[in-house]
Structures are given as C-alpha cells and as structure tokens.
Amino acid sequence: MFRSKLKTILLSVSVTILAASLISFPQESVEASIRGLNMWWKIVFPSLLPFFIVSEMMIGFGVVKFIGVLLEPFMRPLFKVPGVGGFVLAMGMASGFPAGAKFTARLRQEGQLTQIEAERLVSFTNSSNPLFIFGAVSVGFFHNPNLGILLALAHYFGNISVGIIMRFYGNESPDKMAEKRKGFKIKAALSTLHQTRLKDNRPIGKLLGDAVNSSIQTLLMVGGFIIIFSVLNKLLYHLHITAALGKFMEIVLTFLSFPEKLSIPLISGLFEITLGSDLTSHVGAATLLQQAVIVSFILAFSGFSVQAQVASILAQTDIRFKPFFIARIIHGILASFFAILLWKPIYVHFNNIEQPTNALPVGWFFEEGSWTNNFYHKMMEIGPLITICSLFLYILILITRLKKS
Q: Is residue 42 part of a domain?
C-alpha cells in the first residue's frame, strides 16, 4: 500500500514539474517539438507505413504462417522461437524500430506465440534499419559512408547474439506441435497457408482497410512518443539534469579511458538515439573508434523514446517489458564490443587497402551521392506528402466505417 501511494506521489510530482518546465521554456519546447515532428512525418511515418500495411495483409492471407512452418527447423534450435519469428526478424531489420514489437504483439494476439516465446522474440527483433544507420548516422552526422558498414555489422551481430542468449530465458514445457513440425515440409506449409486464408474470411477490401487503420493508429502513437521525448530531452538539458547525470557518466567513461566530453552525448542518446548520435559525431576530443563505440551502444540501447513506444505496444498483450529492457542493455554492451572487435578487420583494413586503378573502392556502394544517400534525402522531400495523403486516407476510412455503423 505504501509503495502504491509513493508511486502516485512521484508520478504526480514528475508530471507537475514537466508542465512547469514547459511553461518556463516555451520557445525551447516548441523547437524540440518541431524537431520531433519533422523526424516523424518526414522519415518515420513514410518509411514504416508500407511495412506495417503489408505485414498485416501477410498475416491475414496466411503468408506468415506459411513462412513460419518453413523456418521452424532454423528458428527453433537457434532462438527457441517458432518459425514465424523469422518473419518478424526480417521485417524488424528492414523497417526498424518499433516494427519488431508490433509484429510480435500481433502474432501473440493471433496465438502463434506463447508468452515466453514472444518475450524472447521481441528482445532481438527490434533494431535500427540500414537506411538510418547509413543515411542518417554515417553520412548525415559523420560524413563518413564507410563507417556505416562497421556500425551496421556491430548492430546486427549484437542483435543476433542477444537472440541466442535469450533462448535460455524462461522455463516452459516442450512444444509438442513443434516436435511434429520438425523438418522442411513444403506441403504442410502450403496447407497451413490455405487453411489460414479460409479461416480469416474477410474480403480483400476489408482486410486492406483494417491494415491501413491499424498501421496508422500505431504510427500516430509512435509520433506522439517521438515528439514528447524530443521535448523531454531538451527540458532535461535546460534544467541541468543532463549535466548532473553526465557527471556520473564521466566517472564510467574515465574508467574506460574515454573522453569525458562524451558523457553529455551518451546521456542524450539514452533518451533519443538521433540527438545522441549527432552530438557524439561533434566531440572532437574523441577518436573515431571511441565515437563508433558510443554510437553503437546508443543504437543498440534504442533510447527511452523507442522503449516507451515498445512498452505501449506490448501493453496491449501479456508480453512483459522487463526482458526487453534487459536485452537492450545486453545489446548495447555487445554492439560496443563488436565495434571494437571489427574495427581493424573491417574499417581500418578496407580504408587502407590499395585498390587497382580500374577498381571501385570497397565503400563505393555507400559513397556520397550513392543510392542510400540520395534515397534518404529524397525521403526527406517526399515524406511529408506521403504522410499527409496517408492520414487523409485514414480519415476517409474512419468516416466510411462510422457511416456504416
């Protein structure tokens, strides 16, 4: 009872301080809010919406269960999750945060995952997408396309390692159905595909409308979290809370022989990955390797902004948030370790090796002006138009359904 009352007081005081801070720093709050809004409607919304809609339709048509049966012999022994986890892993890596959580929660609601399996799966399927790592971080912040290769490898190797570690999480009785599904059985997969489609007898138009409706609702929630944490990060800086936390972080960094000036970027990155990565790239006192290690940790930890998005999605199910949070800490440590481990064989070797005059450099695929850089900037231009059109479509669907009801 006492803990419950204490929690109520702490939450009340915290939200009151936040409201007072918004009034005290109105200009800074608006600027931070606009920054978060720009990130959401230019990049996050248009890049995630197609993945969300297509995934919802794939679930409805039975394609996900089809993939699950085929990948069962691979996912079960390695990660101790059903084959459908392979779909979540692939979509999570391609589309980025918080896609892995959304797809995991959706499959849990469908009954395709147990609670423990869902908690294992969500712990290693939320990752940053390649476009953000190469386009925003390596090119946009560091102006060094080749650094993206190191950051991506460290990030995804760390993620896979977390999945292998989390296979030992939780105790549950053996899945008898999984034992029967052992082996690569294309006939069983096709039968599952057909039966799932028949079971979900929604017309294509209804299925598409539901997919758009669900996807946009999720992305609106994501946008709200991005904006509020962008403002919160700014307010913490002006209230000197970031500097106070930075003093503690300086002790940790000094112990690791890292420059103390990395403390503020690291603290900022714990709240929001974009700001933390950007600030890290401007610390001249740090070597590029030290910057890469810090950014790898920030990308892997995901920031409290992304974690809050995930927590909100998981709250719709019985999937617990605690395993996900612990996995983010493990992922941060492992990603930083892989950044150090791969520094010489990947970054140093490929940047110092002499190329024949008629050969393209190893990083040619990600050079300035390459498709990744151009695509990122093109997304910044057309992203708002995609977002506005999608929201207009969402409103039309809502109005149509309200008239029918």
A: yes
How far from each other are the two terminal CA atoms of the chain, in whole angstroms? 44
Residue 368 lies in a domain: yes
As a whole number of angstroms, the distance between CA 359 and CA 179 comes to 51
Q: Which DSSP state fits 302?
A: -
pTM of the model: 0.80
Angle at 158 between CA 366 and CA 109, to 5 degrees: 105
In our burial notation (b when 16+ CB lie closer than 10 A, e otherwise), range 36-73 reads: bebbbbbbbbbbbbebbbebbbbbbbbbbbbbbbbbbb
Cβ atoms of 148 and 138 within 8 Å: the answer is: yes
- CB of 246 closer than 8 Å to CB of 263: yes
Longest dimension (CA), the chain: 74
**Amino acid sitting at position 117:** E
Q: Virtual CA dihedral for 26, 28, 31, 32, nearest 10 degrees? A: -110
What total of structural domains would you count in the chain?
1
Q: pLDDT tens per residue, the chain (405 residues)?
A: 778 888 888 889 888 988 888 888 889 889 888 888 887 887 778 877 887 888 778 777 777 777 777 777 888 888 888 888 888 888 888 777 888 888 899 889 888 889 999 999 999 988 888 877 887 788 878 888 888 889 999 999 999 999 999 988 877 655 544 544 554 567 776 776 667 776 767 788 888 888 888 888 888 888 888 888 888 888 888 888 888 888 888 888 888 888 888 888 899 889 888 888 888 988 888 899 999 999 999 999 988 988 988 999 999 899 999 999 999 999 999 999 999 999 988 888 777 644 444 443 444 344 444 555 565 566 566 767 777 787 777 778 777 777 776
Which sign does the torsion angle of CA 333, 284, 42, 224 carry? positive
Are the C-beta atoms of 137 and 277 separated by less than 8 Å?
yes
Q: How far apart are CA 138 and CA 295, in angstroms?
A: 10
Question: Which 8-state DSSP code applies to residue 81?
Answer: S
Task: Using CB atoms within 10 Å of the CB of residue 391, give its burial: 0 to 12 exposed, 13 to 18 middle, 19+ buried.
Answer: middle
Decide if 18 is inside a domain.
no
The three-class DSSP label of residue 398 is helix
Query: Using CA atoms, how far apart are residues 353 and 338, in angstroms rounded to an integer?
Result: 21
Would residue 14 count as lying in a domain?
A: no
**Domain containing residue 170:** 28-353+362-404
Neighbours of 85 (CB within 10 A): 34
